[in-house]
Amino acid sequence: MFAAYGSYHKHDTAEAKGMSGTANRFTEAAAAGGNTKTAVFAGGCFWSVEGPFEKLDGVVSVVTGYTGGHTTDPTYEKVSAGKTGHLEAVQVSYDPSRISYNQLLQAFWRNTDPTDAEGQFGDRGTEYRSVIFYDGKEQQSAAEASKAALAAQGKFDKPLVTKILPVAAFYEAEDVHQDFFRTHPADYEFNDVASGREAFLDRVWGEDKELKALESPYAVFDKADRLKSLTKLQADVTQHDQDEPPFRNAYWNNAEAGIYVDIVSGEPLFSSKDQFDAGTGWASFTRPLEPDSVIYREVGGFFSDETQVRSRYADSFLGHVFEDGPEPTGLRYCTNSASLRFIPMDELAQSGYGKYAKLFQEDDAQ
């Protein structure tokens, strides 16, 4: 089967079936009103990567193509021969009001083997490597935090080797390679089964393989009413992006076990297990408690370029993320105590955060 798969996969079809992918993508983008962002992922054969993203609500279109190489005229034959340095990849256009970048990252992890540095499943070679291409610090920070969170889950026996690299020129693949899961459904299914991709993903992810819609009990609340209870400092920080004084705030040296939630919405943000002393006078963490709990926003002026960290639902200003933190992420989430409320470990259940108690059960037993 694998021998047949290898020879079939290198075979190119003369022409695509149905309406051209270019026309389809033009129509879809127009329907979205232009309010879209893009994300680029390489996860092996782009036939297999395209389908899972196309099926997500909020994704406007997915273009298969080539990126990360050293030539300006990549073709399927040249890339497959390893002559261009390009990877097979997909460029995902999505509506951020309907699906988040982190949800796209979660879909990516659920459809790749992030421990394979030599290719993906039955596809071997540099063109099939697993790479996340980020566009700006917002995507970079989100991708690095997501990778660290996945590593912490312990789903894989080997280290995660998926690279996180800046975007490069993206070249659209030939029309036959667009919408392959629709135009060649039997071939698409054979490709996933024969390569071993489907069996691997089923084994690793099980019932969690399909990306679930982003739902949260913190998404709907009376923000105006909540703001009335804030102190002036809390309002200045969360609503006006002002940093509080270092070393003169509630949590910069907090050593108690528990989690930190948004002062406005109550959404969980950080865990004391990821807190460390950065020597700055602000509470610092290596990663968010949940990958989707924070969003990133690039800000800056003539002399600086920083990435803000904000809570997803309350849009509270939390602080900034920097690339000088310790392992396992190498990130430092420098946060304002005025944006946070601390829930001690032994009060999690009664405060409505019982699901996080298991994070501290091992420490409590010791």
From TrEMBL:
<dbReference type="InterPro" id="IPR011057">
    <property type="entry name" value="Mss4-like_sf"/>
</dbReference>
<dbReference type="InterPro" id="IPR002569">
    <property type="entry name" value="Met_Sox_Rdtase_MsrA_dom"/>
</dbReference>
<dbReference type="GO" id="GO:0008113">
    <property type="term" value="F:peptide-methionine (S)-S-oxide reductase activity"/>
</dbReference>
<dbReference type="InterPro" id="IPR002579">
    <property type="entry name" value="Met_Sox_Rdtase_MsrB_dom"/>
</dbReference>
<dbReference type="Pfam" id="PF01641">
    <property type="entry name" value="SelR"/>
</dbReference>
<dbReference type="Pfam" id="PF01625">
    <property type="entry name" value="PMSR"/>
</dbReference>
<protein>
    <recommendedName>
        <fullName>Peptide methionine sulfoxide reductase MsrA</fullName>
        <ecNumber>1.8.4.11</ecNumber>
    </recommendedName>
</protein>
<comment type="function">
    <text>Has an important function as a repair enzyme for proteins that have been inactivated by oxidation. Catalyzes the reversible oxidation-reduction of methionine sulfoxide in proteins to methionine.</text>
</comment>
<feature type="active site">
    <location>
        <position position="45"/>
    </location>
</feature>
<comment type="similarity">
    <text>Belongs to the MsrA Met sulfoxide reductase family.</text>
</comment>
<dbReference type="InterPro" id="IPR036509">
    <property type="entry name" value="Met_Sox_Rdtase_MsrA_sf"/>
</dbReference>
<feature type="domain" description="MsrB">
    <location>
        <begin position="223"/>
        <end position="345"/>
    </location>
</feature>
<keyword id="KW-0511">Multifunctional enzyme</keyword>
<keyword id="KW-0560">Oxidoreductase</keyword>
